[in-house]
């Protein structure tokens, strides 16, 4: 096995349990990885400010891939951000609202903007966005934004992306599934795969020295990009073609199991 120098993991349904909890002693493992020269990367569709809150004690010393690659940080510094134009994300918002199935979220760098009529979903939104703003008129928003997400209460995001959102936006934007309830639309070329390669170039790590974990479509590019790619046991079946290896489910701490193997190998050298 080529020595591992970087380990990246998706969060929801991959690193986090179904209850939204980290595996036990994860932060201690992140410190141990750093001590043996291995970078740990949280790679998520969640925004940067949420990841910084989740990894508050570790964020200044690790890498973060936020908004599916729309923002990349290393050691607390932004090294890349890719934005949508105001006109483009307003076009997306109008389209979603006309469909009448699901509702749009403007993912700005400063927070998530939703129409006030969806305030009943505040608790659900708070699971993913630690800065949420409910407004009367989304068309008035002109903030820097790198993604529009669509939330589908019926958990039919995979069907919606195939039937509606890939045909409508796939030619000019990156369109992916962020989970059972989420479709994400980003600037063309933005995905976790491109982000992890860019991050590797910045810190001097090749894809052959990377390990990554995921469960669903927005992880496909990342898994395809690295040599040691793992699909968790609870991952979507269609993801099997992107991963070279398998590990235990999120609830059985599959990511942590593989991290412990890497740490054991590193210490044995």
The low-confidence runs, each spanning 5 or more residues with pLDDT under 50, are: none
Q: What is the number of beta strands? A: 14
Tell me what portion of residues adopts beta-strand conformation: 25-35%
User: What Rg, in angstroms, do the CA atoms define?
Assistant: 18 Å
Average pLDDT figure: 96
| Strand arrangement across the biggest beta sheet | 5-4-3-2-1-12-13-14
Largest sheet: 8 strands, mixed
SSE ordering: EHHEHEEEHEEHEEHEEHEHEEH
Distance between the termini: 12 Å
Helicity level: 25-40%
How many H/I helices?
A: 9
Overall morphology = globular
Class computed from helices, strands and strand pairing: alpha/beta
Question: What is the strand and helix layout of this fold?
Answer:
Elements: E1 6-9, H1 11-15, H2 26-35, E2 39-43, H3 48-54, E3 63-66, E4 71-74, E5 77-81, H4 86-99, E6 103-108, E7 111-115, H5 122-126, E8 132-135, E9 145-151, H6 157-169, E10 173-179, E11 182-187, H7 192-203, E12 210-214, H8 220-225, E13 228-232, E14 245-247, H9 254-268
Helix pairs in contact: 2-9
What can you tell me about this protein's structure?
The protein is an alpha/beta fold and 269 residues long. Helix content is 32%, strand content 26%. The chain is built from 9 helices and 14 strands. It has helices at residues 11-15, 26-35, 48-54, 86-99, 122-126, 157-169, 192-203, 220-225, 254-268, and strands spanning 6-9, 39-43, 63-66, 71-74, 77-81, 103-108, 111-115, 132-135, 145-151, 173-179, 182-187, 210-214, 228-232, 245-247. The strands form 2 sheets. It has an 8-stranded mixed β-sheet with strand order 5-4-3-2-1-12-13-14, sandwiched between helices. The protein has a 6-stranded mixed β-sheet with strand order 8-7-6-9-11-10. The two termini are 12 Å apart.
């Amino acid at each position: 096995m080529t020595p591992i120098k970087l380990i990246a993991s998706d969060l929801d349904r991959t690193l986090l349990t179904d209850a939204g909890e980290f595996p036990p002693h994860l932060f201690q493992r992140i410190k141990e990885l750093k001590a043996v020269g291995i970078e740990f990367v949280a790679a998520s569709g969640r925004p940067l400010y949420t990841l910084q809150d989740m990894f508050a004690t570790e964020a200044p010393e690790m890498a973060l891939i936020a908004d599916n690659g729309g923002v990349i940080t290393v050691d607390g510094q932004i090294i890349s951000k890719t934005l949508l134009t105001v006109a483009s994300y307003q076009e997306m918002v109008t389209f979603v609202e006309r469909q009448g199935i699901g509702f749009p979220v403007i993912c700005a760098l400063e927070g998530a903007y939703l129409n006030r009529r969806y305030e009943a979903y505040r608790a659900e939104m708070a699971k993913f966005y630690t800065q949420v703003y409910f407004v009367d008129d989304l068309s008035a928003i002109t903030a820097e934004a790198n993604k529009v997400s669509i939330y589908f209460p019926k958990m039919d995001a995979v069907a919606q992306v195939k039937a509606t959102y890939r045909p409508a936006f796939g030619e000019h934007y990156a369109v992916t599934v962020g989970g059972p309830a989420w479709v994400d639309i980003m600037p063309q070329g933005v995905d976790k795969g491109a982000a992890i390669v860019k991050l590797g170039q910045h810190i001097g790590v090749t894809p052959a020295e990377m390990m990554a974990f995921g469960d669903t479509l927005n992880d496909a590019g990342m898994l395809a990009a690295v040599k040691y790619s793992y699909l968790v046991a609870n991952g979507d079946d269609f993801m099997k073609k992107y991963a070279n290896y398998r590990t235990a489910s999120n609830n059985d701490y599959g990511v942590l199991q593989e991290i412990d193997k890497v740490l054991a190998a590193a210490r044995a050298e």
